[in-house]
Specification:
159 residues, alpha+beta, 5-stranded mixed barrel, two-stranded antiparallel ribbon, flat
């Protein structure tokens, strides 16, 4: 698309993420992020809320199991009110309603994550799989590395 603009947004989810699957096996998560800036008011000598901006966010997979698992985790772990960081491309969508073209902006996200500014986050990493004995043997380094064979022999002075 020609109208893509890279963007990172931080805000609160206005509803629980919605997970959908397509016939081809691809998954998509829909959510809306709201951001209300706090602005210093000279008249009130305090911070006041600015105008809230709402942005629809879509997170799409290509249908493989790993990406669909990521979509599933996002939809289960995040909920309405959570503060999130979303990164991706700002895109313009067009649709027709009553013969009129309606344009809207949304974020086609590459990544969505909870923000730890106002909350604690616990990271649960999946344990790394250890290679089997057959895989370890296949990947074991040989006695002579390719780089060693390219070095000149050591002289008695270098030893």
């Amino acid at each position: 698309m020609n109208n893509e603009i890279p963007l990172t947004i931080v805000g609160n989810l206005t509803r629980n993420p919605e997970l959908r699957f397509f016939k081809e096996g691809a998954a998509v998560v829909y959510m809306t992020v709201a951001h209300t800036p706090r602005i210093w008011s000279v008249a009130e000598k305090d911070y006041v809320d600015g105008v809230t901006t709402y942005l629809d966010v879509e997170l799409r997979s290509k249908g493989n199991e790993r990406q669909n698992d990521y979509m599933q985790r996002i939809s289960e772990e995040l909920q309405m009110g959570d503060r999130v960081i979303a990164m991706g491309m700002l895109i313009t969508k067009e649709r027709k309603r009553d013969g009129e073209v309606i344009r809207s902006m949304s974020l086609l996200a590459n990544e969505v994550a909870p923000s730890n500014r106002f909350a604690s986050i616990t990271v649960n990493r999946k344990p790394k799989s250890t290679p089997s004995k057959v895989e370890a043997k296949e990947w074991a380094p040989s006695a002579t590395h390719a780089i060693d064979s390219q070095l000149p022999p050591l002289s008695s002075r270098d030893r």
